[in-house]
Amino acid sequence: MASIMTAVGEWEGQVGDVWAKEWQRTDRSFSELTVQLAQAIADIAPETGTAIDIGCGAAETAIGLARANPAIKVTGTDLSSGLLDVARSRVEGLTNINFVLGDAVSEAASHKPVDLYVSRHGVMFFDDPVAAFTSFRQAASSEARIVFSCFRDWSLNAFARDISELTGAAAPTDAPGPFAFAPKDRVESILAASGWRDVKATHVDFDYIAGQGDDPVEDAISFMRRIGPAARAIRLANEEERPVIIDGLRQICESRRQDKTVLFPAAAWIWTARA
Q: Does the global pTM surpass 0.90?
């Protein structure tokens, strides 16, 4: 059985380009989580200094940080040039933010000392996470903090679980991908081995908003055919399997409809630590 998850290299090409086109619906899907992540960042952000957004995507988190903290210099890093093009179009005259295409680890080293690292679901794709987080810590100032979100177990995230049940896809493993940081003890071990301290994990339950409007089911199907595990399953399916998956997706979205919204229960961690 094939995995339903996205591989890191795909962000540099097709997947990253699709996310760039779907950034508004993607931000919408994470909107409830984003509010809580932004508050966690605000609680510990320094008044001044240097911040890096790891895997910034279309930069909702980085832009929010830069707007709320004008004395902080924010750098967003990502592997997708398409997503960074979107990010640059959204800065609305902010002068304390810039974006860099490439590896967040290398960018951290060139900006040291870094006072704050943030990420909304961008840290789960490193081939060697201990080495990556060690590099982040080594580039950090003595009082630096890190704040990031990641998914909890895939079975608690209905948009992934329902599609896995539909397609018979294998459950995700610890390999780089969206659910690589789901096990709490694994992330604790990674951060401890990397030299981070005062590690804290807060569990967050939220509604993943897949569709809205007068026809939220069709909106959700359109979105999920392009973003996430359903999109991957459809892309990899043969001509006979594809319409069956799409019909099953429609039934799933109908079952998750609440008036003018299609909602999937979702679960995440928000992690904080100190250098």
A: yes
pLDDT exceeds 90 at position 16: no
Going from the C-alpha of 121 to that of each of 33, 125, 153, 253, 268, the distances in angstroms are 10, 9, 14, 24, 9
Residue whose token pair is 């981070």: 196
Q: How far apart are CA 207 and CA 163, in angstroms?
A: 17
- Burial pattern 166-195, b for ≥16 Cβ within 10 A else e, equals bbebeebeeebbbbbbbeeeebbebbeebe
pLDDT computed for residue 10 by the predictor: 54
CA Rg value for the chain: 18
Mean pLDDT on 240-257: 96
pLDDT tens digits for 108-137?
A: 999 999 999 999 999 999 999 999 999 999
State both tokens at 273.
């630590």
